[in-house]
Amino acid sequence: MKTRILGILGGIALLLSAGSVYAGGRPREPVKVFGTEGCSFITLSFTFDGFNLVGHPDCTGHDNFGVYNGQRIDAYLAYDSSGPITGPACTAPDGTAGESFPLELAEFVNTYNFTDDQIWGYSYTGSACVSVISGSFSTITEWTILGGTGLFTGATGTVTEKASPVIGFLYFYNYAFPPYNLTYGSSPLAAGQFGQFTGTTTGTITP
Question: Which of 10, 16, 101, 151 satisfies CB 3.0 to 4.6 Å to 76 for a cystine?
């Protein structure tokens, strides 16, 4: 049977298609999905609330359905009208001390290779743990599926994405040159962030 695809954004993202799971038409029951992805990201001047800038991950991933490319935007509550917010303490993936921040809003679109089917969704539920010493971080995002095109027209469901930076990661944010994992805050003139991460996605989707 011809394989179809679905993905989770991005990070941050989501995955899906029809092949090994679908056996004769659109399923009438929810389908469990599992996938992995690799993404790079950069911060944008785009903001949902006038204070917190969004990150913009571009992802390539696959799941039990196929291969996809995904884009998303997400913002975490790190600033308000009074200035920077100090988040609760947490431990970053590299073992250094970190701060945790709740997700403000995230949105994604994944496009499946070969079919051009798309799936999209949003999230208000998630958090990030960011090291105050290095560039290490981790995120967890619970996505709500809003629909899509082709196979995913009218799709619903929820998918959870967990992500963290690649070992030996490239990272730039308030760091001096060269841009990789240097002391936090060494370049206060930096105006953006760049890095990469890998993630896993699990959940249930009803196409």
Answer: 101
